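F.,

This is the one I mentioned.
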């Protein structure tokens, strides 16, 4: 089993910054990609960023140039640095990390979600 705990969300003014963290415990493989998603009220969950085990990154156009994903494999943690935040970034943010379930199968695990609110 894998357990993910997110932290770092909150309320920030437009133009401000926040850094989200997602700490994983359990059977994960540091070579698997990790990602961040978000879901705004009334909208579908949106992919934001991905980082491979080797550190290559990819971003959605909506956050490219403003958000940075990183990981610390020694700490089993993935981060999302969010700069130049806009009111439309308001959403619940989720990390997703693959891990091994009780049967040994590789599964996607999700964090509990953390609220980010950007005021205008």
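My design for it:
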């Amino acid at each position: 089993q894998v357990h993910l705990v997110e932290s770092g969300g909150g309320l920030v003014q437009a133009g401000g910054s926040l850094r989200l963290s997602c700490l994983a415990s359990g059977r994960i493989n540091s070579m698997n990609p990790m990602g961040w998603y978000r879901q705004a009220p009334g909208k579908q969950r949106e992919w934001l960023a991905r980082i491979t085990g080797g550190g290559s990154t990819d971003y959605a156009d909506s956050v490219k140039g403003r958000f940075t994903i990183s990981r610390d494999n020694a700490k089993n943690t993935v981060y999302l640095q969010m700069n130049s935040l806009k009111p439309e970034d308001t959403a619940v943010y989720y990390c997703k990390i693959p891990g091994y379930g009780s049967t040994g199968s590789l599964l996607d695990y999700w964090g509990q979600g953390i609220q980010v609110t950007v005021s205008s």
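The longest strand covers residues 91-100.

Talk soon.
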